[in-house]
Amino acid sequence: MQLECFKSYDVRGRIGVDLDEAMCRSIGRAFAAVMKPQTVVVGRDVRATSQAFQAALAEGLLESGVDVLDIGLCGTEEVYFATDHFGAGGGLMVTASHNPITYNGIKLVERGGRPIPSDGGFHEIHDLVAAGIAAPEGPRGSLRQVDPRPAYVDKALSFIDPPSLAGLKILVNAGNGCAGPTFDAIATALAERGAALEFERMHHTPDGDFPNGIPNPLLAGNRPATADTVKANGADFGVAWDGDFDRCFLFDETGAFIDGEYLVGLLAEAFLDKVPGSKIVHDTRVMWNTQDLVTRAGGETVASLTGHAHVKATMRRVDAVYGGEMSAHHYFRDFMYCDSGMVPWLLIAEFLCRTDKPLSELIDDMRANYPSSGEINFTVSDSAAAIAAIEAALVTDDCEVDRMDGVGLNFPDRRLNLRRSSTEPVLRLNVETRGDQALLAATTAQVIDLIRPFEI
What we know:
The chain has 456 residues and is of the alpha/beta class. The chain contains 14 helices and 20 strands. It has helices spanning 21-35, 50-62, 76-85, 118-130, 149-157, 179-192, 224-233, 260-274, 288-296, 308-318, 343-355, 359-369, 383-394, 437-451; strands at 11-14, 39-44, 67-73, 90-94, 103-110, 143-145, 166-173, 196-202, 237-241, 248-251, 279-283, 300-304, 322-324, 330-332, 338-339, 376-379, 400-402, 407-410, 414-420, 426-433. The mean pLDDT is 96.
């Protein structure tokens, strides 16, 4: 039996339908049985059920003889950090991130903040929960509240030179998620270490009722609030986070949203300025801008399958200093190869101070040189048939077909990537060109017309 709340790498489901306290307690037991940790870090987001779900997870661990370190309200990256910092055997974060308010979930990692392999430990945890794992007999573990935030702040600020940050006004939108308290700790430490930055805060207080909507800046309808406030306050740029702030989204000083692929390129450039000749990992959905910037800066790009487990594994294999996905996940070698939503905006602030250019100028050049369609999703009856029809219509002698991650059709002047969802009847399309907006529009329209007969 496949439990609905177990996805590819984490647990997510409808509260009271797919996921409840009893399920969380079982997951705690199963995590203890499979991973065999002595100590586990647990944390939670701000959702109304998260504290009870965290307590149930902890109880499942405790009755299995595992010691639990409770770090309370936090971001997912703080669980990753604390797991490594305290030398724990694993970490569990109760969060539904950007999902609807009726959802909650759990993110699971092993020692060092590493992902648990989906074809190994994660499946074993699922199977034990599905079988109804009982509490083992034996001594209980201990529960202790700990505060890793000061050490986490030190780690985040180790990526930059605080005294070099001066003269910027930054608008931050925590979306009433978890980011507010952690950001405040970072802002205080920045000031203490010589940074001269001005911050404007909005929707800053954690509130599980999400009075300003679920924090998910990837949705276009959620962006105007941040964009308008950036312009109204004369900020140099804006930052908005999702619920557990493992993703951050940037807006330039005009209020324009910065698409993920361009932020990957900019962060790659910032890192190569610090660590010349480094390797940069990227996903394959949209990649020409990143490859061009990295090559010109003297670095080396390495393509990866999409998804945090794949990117992290690729980074470890090639010893990459940074990895980025267009979905706004950014990974750092010196942060346990994990994703962070705080480190990116710090690096961008430092890069702007170093280049003395407005963010719009840096991004506009990328948009002009490598325009992209943005990801377009289609609900289709048969993804394989739709892809086959597109290949039959478009593949010519000058087209290189890449099947590394979905299907990539690479022409000299344009490129498209098609990926099937692993959980839904959805086909995802991305198109990019070399500086040709008209060709971008024409190619996108052509592919959409080829997909239409398969839509449902």
